[in-house]
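During the second half of the funding period, the structural biology subgroup turned its attention to how the target accommodates small molecules. The most pressing case was thymidine-5'-phosphate, which had performed well in the primary screen but for which no bound structure existed. We therefore specified the complex as follows and requested a full 3D prediction, including the ligand pose.
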Amino acid sequence: MARRKKIYEGKAKILYEGPEPGTMVQYFKDDATAFNAEKKATIDGKGVLNNRLSEYFMKGLTQIGIPNHFIKRINMREQLIRSAEIIPLEVIVRNFAAGSLSKRLGMAEGTALPRPIVEFCLKDDALGDPLVSEEHIIAFGWANQQDLDDMIALALRVNDFMSGIMMAVGIKLVDFKIEIGRVWENDFHRLIVADEISPDSCRLWDIETGQKLDKDVFRRDLGNLADAYTEVARRLGVLPSNVTHTTKPTLIN
Ligand code: TMP
């Protein structure tokens, strides 16, 4: 059997050519990185958990009419997705201050924001994904005004959906990042949610205890990352039956 073609390898996922034109296979690795890959580890079971969790969230988005790239899960680590032309921006929505916003504005982590705030960062590892304004986005042509309006609307709908399902299982959605892609139909394109939605790209805090259940556990050395993701999956009822991770994360760098 011919070896399938690798299209792109990122820090946490690999994209392969899909079985039909316009599709790709997205493979979830166990690798975790933080601070622009300065910190790296392999965390047993992370890829399996994120594959399941991203499937769960994307299917939910589909059910409420929010277009996204998910077609179907293929196996423990792979899902079939629609190819999309990724807009080179990370779209961040924040409900509570944390992370870079807290640092930038000197705001205590956990401070409720007056309304959800949408931010854009340019996807550029060499520059450390800098924050950019809507003016930059339009002026430099990363997206046009219509795309920008659609991206904000899409991100806020995802925020409402994700906040609701997390609240239902006792978790506060502090913030998250999504990536958005263009899908072309003749001369027109529409925008879809792409990449992944998982605890790698969200901040999730237990409502009662404030315990962190997301990638900050790894970034800030707060414990076992796979245990935190397993807890999210367990509460949502999407825990794959045969994931075990009794070992500690192994530092590979
Ligand atoms: P930040 O506070 O570090 O800017 O992160 C905001 C949100 O974006 C948080 O939920 C984590 C997520 N995020 C990513 O998914 N990828 C990244 O590279 C970074 C820096 C943050």
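Two results from this model are relevant to the next phase. The chain has two domains: 6-84+232-247, 87-206. The longest helix spans residues 145-168.
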